[in-house]
Design brief:
4 helices
């Protein structure tokens, strides 16, 4: 039940004057992961590891890369701005259209609401997903 580690694989760092290591790990449950370690002192101060995940048909892949810290900060700022804008838009839409939507759907069954919103099952989510997760 413990994790086994492979032999560390050295790779050239972004500045080309040092290296970073990639260590692959696995366990008895068939789980795998990678650990990336920067060994170049110069790159260690200028770069951070960026990781993103892709999901396809129930399988998750993780991808990694070294990115300048200034770009990661810029990305974090943009993500925060986007989240703030989404909240602002949601508040605006609720204020402008909330009462109309509530009046429109008042007294209708969950199946009728689903049928109207999902074009009789032509789009996601299914009726069971909608009723169990959204229309509680």
């Amino acid at each position: 039940m413990s994790w086994e580690e492979s032999k560390p694989e050295p790779h050239p760092c972004p500045c080309g004057k040092g290296e970073y290591l990639v260590i692959h790990r696995s366990d008895d449950w068939g789980r795998f992961e990678e650990r990336w370690e920067m060994w170049c002192p110069r790159c260690n101060t200028d770069y951070d590891l960026y990781t993103y995940y892709l999901n396809y048909k129930g399988m998750t892949e993780s991808h990694h890369g070294w990115v300048r810290k200034s770009l990661l900060q810029e990305l974090a700022d943009l993500i925060k701005q986007m989240e703030d804008d989404k909240k602002g838009l949601a508040t605006y839409l609720k204020m402008q259209y909330g009462k109309k939507w509530l009046q429109h759907f008042r007294g209708k069954t969950k199946k009728t609401i689903w049928s109207e919103l999902m074009q009789d099952g032509q789009t996601y989510p299914s009726l069971s997903t909608l009723t169990s997760a959204i229309l509680v």
